[in-house]
Fold this sequence. Notes:
single chain; mainly beta; Tachylectin-2, Chain A; Jelly Rolls; 2 domains; seven-stranded antiparallel sheet; 34 strands; binds beta-D-fructofuranose
Amino acid sequence: MSRWTRRLWGSLTLASAAAVSATATVGAAAASGAAVATADALYSEQYRPQFHFTPPQQWMNDPNGMVYDHGEFHLFYQYNPYSNKWGPMHWGHAVSRDLLHWQHLPIALYPDRLGAIFSGSAVVDHANTAGFGSRAHPAMVAMYTYHDHLSENLGHTGYESQGIAFSLDQGRNWSKYSGNPVLTNPAVRDFRDPKLFWHAPTQRWIVALAAADHVAFYSSRDLRHWTHESDFGQDQGAHSGVWECPDLISMQVEGTTQDRYVLLVSIGKGGPNGGSATQYFVGHFDGHRFTADVARPDLPASVPRWFDYGTDDYAGSTWSGGARGDQRQLFIGWMSNWQYATDVPTQRWRSAMTLPRELRLVDDGRGYELRSRPIAELAALRRTAAVVGPRVIAAPFDLTGAAKTHGGLLELDIDLDTTGAPSSELQFANERGERTIFRINQAERRFELDRSASGAVDFSAVFAAVQSAPWPGTDQRVRLHIYLDQSSIEVFINDGDTVFTALVFPEAAYDSVVLRGSGAFGLNGATVYELGSVWR
Length: 536
Ligand code: FRU
């Protein structure tokens, strides 16, 4: 049974009266063009994230088609409107002006005779290269993968191809191009997830596509006709799973005049802490070919560089375009893992996106490193702030006294000097004794995230495993920037040098945050913010 059949089978066996009636709700709302659910009715459920994007109901996976246009950030996403499990894929749709408050819109793309609509990207065709709009009223153009389940079930190989669709009203209504597919399958089973960008030096569109064990690059002058340029990656990076959702991004190395291209590649399994994860390569792209720099002269090219060490940040990519003067590369990922995405203990909806992040390319003396940090806009969610001054932590210290945490929505900024404590940790806990622990294992120079007793964990055999990441360098100082929502924790260490994004499902919100160590260590300072919900 193929991976896809397995996913689909799961959803079909669960298709029930409940799923059918939920469909009716979505359909009715879609027909009226209104937001599909009111926050009051749905957004106070157990585990429902309060400042992360979730679909109002049913199944979501990858973020798709992120594009900025007329002041709006568009977020499309892999969506099954019929069930809370993966199934026939559509593109769900939402828009936001600040990347925090989202307005749900009707489904943008439905499956058609060529197949279900898998992941892809979108751009605004300002020069009207495809001819779908005009220079005065440019079209928004989406490129996505057609996955033909029928052809797959008949045992054919080429069941994935690429199609395009366009919108002339800022993403509200979509027409599929009559000449689809625009890129047929070169006899590769996995041939998907086109990520488009305009390559100004050669005045052409480039698309990066995942083709089983490598990324294939194609070029086009009009988005309709595509020419194969090159392939990258068969002998580089991690290969224990299928390659998916590539994104090729041009970035300036922070504080320099140097430019590099960063290639993000998601990989279906074999991540640093198990299951699906995202690796990256830094290098050059000349309009035809991507070549990776030698990441670390001391390491072979096959050693992967991980974007996020947490288990729950997959299939992410960046927004196309942005507000005038905003040069940021803005990223969002799917906050789950194919190891257990279908089994997490939510019912009405399944899956959230990560926090939106700003990507940075930094020369840290060991080479060019891709870092990410939460977007500055998140500061608007702060309700109260409590500052804790410098002190020695010789006994468990309750940071909770500093802030109201009853809602369990927290942001923490913590600066530690771990000298003196072979192990120091932050424990997020509730009165039931459920806890998530972030540990700085100085003895082994590792960071660890332990969710083994975080709440519901038994829905999966692997969810409780302790996650870890190497602690690079020799410094004893650790700066932490942490976001806690109803069912997730995101830890940005040392300005995003190392990141953990992880789901947690506590029965009740964590209402205490305790700092402690196996020896006395220093707290240079901390600020604890209580955050508000975006739904109220
Ligand atoms: C990644 C992925 C993509 C595919 C989509 C299908 O999670 O497997 O490769 O396009 O999900 O929903």
